Amino acid sequence: MHWVPARVARSFEHDHPEPPCPYREAREALETRENKLCLAALTEMLGRRDYGAEEARRKLRHAGFRASAIDHALERAQELRFLDEERFLVSYIEERLRRGWGRLKIEADLRQRGSDPHMLPGYPDRFFSAEDDLERACAALARKAVPERNAFERLVRHLMGKGFPYRIAAQAVRIRLDEEESA
């Protein structure tokens, strides 16, 4: 027996109230309907925000669609450029940089979503430089109060939690502590 996602069954039942038909015809009609509904669900998701292909695949699988319908929907969405991995990666990285995230945290988050930023042409140099990282780390520290005890360690740990490498975090903390002493 063939499992049918609830969304597909409801749609099929609503549009096909005729008497039972041969199994093969019913199965083909259900598969066609599932492909259409899966693409519609993907388009709806992409209308809210961009997704990487693997993250979209997981969400569609969680919604109950079968792998064949998901593959069909992803392929069609890529043909129509609704789903574009490079566009997703660029916008995701740029948005996280605006939020003050460091490279390590961005890469870890993308890996968790099933995307690889290294597929982007010019990555990482296109997005990250030591000067920019230091500037973002200093900006993140400007909003943070300097702790009374263990200031260096706590501030470095804070920046490393935001995804900055130790070298950049330590340099930014030294700058902040020097500014604090001279004030």
Could you walk me through the main structural features you see in this protein, from its secondary elements to its overall organization?
- The chain has 183 residues and is mainly alpha-helical.
- The chain has 3 domains: 6-83, no CATH class; 84-127, no CATH class; 129-183, no CATH class.
- It is built from 9 helices and no strands.
- It has helices at residues 6-15, 23-48, 53-62, 67-79, 85-98, 103-112, 130-142, 151-161, 166-182.
- Helix 3 runs antiparallel to helix 4 (67-79) and helix 7 (130-142) crosses helix 9.
- The radius of gyration is 24 Å and the shape is elongated.
- The mean pLDDT is 90.
Outline the fold blueprint.
Blueprint: H1 6-15, H2 23-48, H3 53-62, H4 67-79, H5 85-98, H6 103-112, H7 130-142, H8 151-161, H9 166-182
Helix pairs in contact: 1-2, 2-4, 3-4, 7-9, 8-9
Domain RecX second three-helical: 84-114
Main location: cytoplasm
GO cellular component, one term: cytoplasm
